[in-house]
Design brief:
Elements: H1 5-27, E1 42-43, E2 49-51, E3 54-55, H2 56-72, H3 77-93, E4 104-105, E5 111-113, H4 119-135, H5 138-156, E6 172-173, H6 175-190, H7 196-210, E7 212-213, E8 218-219, E9 222-223, H8 233-236, E10 237-238, H9 240-256, H10 261-278, E11 290-291, E12 305-306, H11 307-324, H12 327-343, E13 355-356, E14 362-364, H13 376-394
Amino acid sequence: MPYSTPDLLALRDFYRDQLLRNTLPFWFPRSFDEEYGGFLFARDADGSLIDDDKAVWIQGRATWLLATLYNTVEPRPEWLHGAKLGYEFLNRHCFDSDGRMFFHVTRDGRPIRKRRYFFSETFYAIAAAAYAKASGDEEAAQNARKVFGKCIEYATTPGLLPAKFTDTRPAKAIGVPMILTNTAHQLRETIGDERCDPWIETWISGIERDFVKDDIRCVMEQVAPDGSIIDHIDGRTLNPGHAIEGAWFILHEAKHRNNDPHLLDLGCRMLDYMWERGWDKEFGGILYFRDVYHKPVQEYWQDMKFWWPHNEAIIATLLAYLMTGEEKYADWHKQVHAYAYAHFLDPVHGEWFGYLRRDGAVAQTAKGNLFKGPFHLPRQEWYCWKVLDEFLQKNQ
């Protein structure tokens, strides 16, 4: 059944209120590290700290979030203060001497771990760009553009970074064009960069050409250099939530281009294929890993329910419905919204648990760790609030 206007109004208010009254108060201001800078996000269900190490990804993501809220919701001083704490910590402690960024540091910023890929840099770029817009700091804008340029260089220059795949079985992963598309979206919407539009076109074209398999209704997570399927366990493994995230990035670009029909069709096809493969028809929710040929999956957590695929599916299904009016997307949105807020939301302390067993039972109580923090959930609630508000204003 499609959504009525009163339904959409109620949904808009729900996402706004969840964000402002439930999700954000769990994290802030308690996570501001006023002594060393940045944020302390490794927290148990009740908000108590379980570790004071800092994941660079989430330092960048939270900086982006707070600056984005300042830019798009209201200019609250505490949000700008938090964004500054994060931005300055990233600059002081999270870059190695070779210009690349760490993945994991101590509370006071001493390096612990560095990874082969450049996702820390993408989160820095969007954080610096959003902070530049919020603060008027031109140096932050320059830093965002500089690091965005380094990301493009890392993605396009063979041998510049340590290889994930060997010459024996070379491959390419969808994560790189996906995350760079989103990074370019954020720079374009905050500080502007003439490189964004042509590179977005290149990255989306590559996703469509190499990873979207219309003949078997699937979006691959990795493929051979020529785009063919690698018929080994790693090559066959799908991540439905990740592909659905990619789908809404493409739908967002279609919306930017006045509902570009080709991109709208591409984003909806990606959502259709991976909803069919990822939705758990027995228990509900998005399964974490699937095999393209329905063979066993190697990872033991393959049938668990992680928080973030549900955030991405909530955005993707809502955006697809608002852009197409197709009833099935309203139905899917209702299903994933109802499942997620019934199973992940903590009614006692707020925010979401991160990890459920297949049957929906909470697997462990942490709300924050090296991968989970204030990003996917608040981004979902903020984005859905804003896209609904825009739709309702245009259609009132």
